Amino acid sequence: MIRRLLQANLRNDAQAIEEVEGLLSNIAEAWKQISPKASFQESR
């Protein structure tokens, strides 16, 4: 992702930035789903 952002910056490529934004959004959503499950297991 870092390489893609660097390329996007050098080429002024908004589509590449949107691509990375989508990937980061997917990762953030996955962490949100994992967090409640991990908290539940820790409280046992």
TrEMBL record:
Pfam families for the chain: FliS (PF02561)
Keyword Transferase: no
InterPro entries the UniProt entry points to: FliS, FliS_sf
UniProt record, GO biological process: bacterial-type flagellum assembly
Record flagged with keyword NAD: no
Keywords: Cell projection, Cilium, Flagellum
UniProt name for this protein: Flagellar protein FliS
Gene: fliS_1
